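does this look right to u?? nicotinamide-adenine-dinucleotide version
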Amino acid sequence: MEAKLLEGKKIAEKLRSEIQKQIEVYSQKLGTVPALRAIQVGEDHASELYLKSQRRAAESVGAKHETTSLGPNATEQDLIGEIERANRDPRVHGIIVQMPLPKSFRTDRVLDAIHPDKDVEAVTARNLGRLLMNKEGLAPCTARACLRLIEETGVDLYGKEGVVIGSSKVVGLPAFLLLIGKKVTSMICHTGTFKSGTLESHVRRADILVVSAGKPALIPGAWVKEGAIVIDVGINRVEGKTVGDVEFETARKRAAFITPVPGGVGPLTVMTLMENLVTALAIQQKK
Ligand code: NAD
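got this back:
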């Protein structure tokens, strides 16, 4: 039996049309459409690609997108000043600080300058704290996309074993918290787990496996539990091809559901960003 593909692209299209309708309603009722401002320092190839997909997604739902580019010599204080300007600007509803930042910048300090109500990537301590408290609000897009894909399977999650590989603040940790919120018995593995040689034993137990390490073929298909849900977040370039962190062909023979790379988590992440933008506008309108 081959696993059913969890095609993020198709789910993203469904979400796109829902968001577009919501934006039309806002536009008619309030005379305003949500606007996203991305702020970048210097130039970076991966950042440019992300900006391009943000613009495409914004256009597809009828939202506004603009980019403020600071030159490579901008200081941390220049960047914080730009964020504060966007915080005060009533025409801006969502703010993204493009990564990577110059090495000398204190990333946490910069990100925490974003007003929590405009924090559409949920990178501020306040929004991550809300997630910890299992409160509604803005949650990190990729982690939320993972949960949506898992829920799309229709499998009852209650009491299932969940294993998340990777403990980043943007993917692994929030995905773990979202799973806990769904009463999945969950754990996080990271480089320490790998080095101690226990990664395989944890993966083999997982009914729900979320992998976000950025290491091609980290998870051999043979480790995947029969009937598992496998969400592969990794994006790696290998010999000119984009691949995930899981050995796809062997894993799909054991799993019940699996995301392809590309076409799985990625397209849904950027649409979830649009969903967060609409949520941010709603939060700001309420106040
Ligand atoms: P990160 O580099 O911030 O964190 C990687 C995590 O993986 C760390 O916690 C590290 O401990 C763990 N890790 C690394 N090597 C490991 C190993 N050998 N065994 C076990 N754990 C290991 O990464 P991130 O920002 O979470 O991104 C991870 C991957 O996901 C990257 O490939 C990135 O491009 C991709 N990504 C995809 C999307 C999407 O929308 N599809 C979004 C964000 C990130």
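The longest strand covers residues 35-41. idk if thats expected tbh
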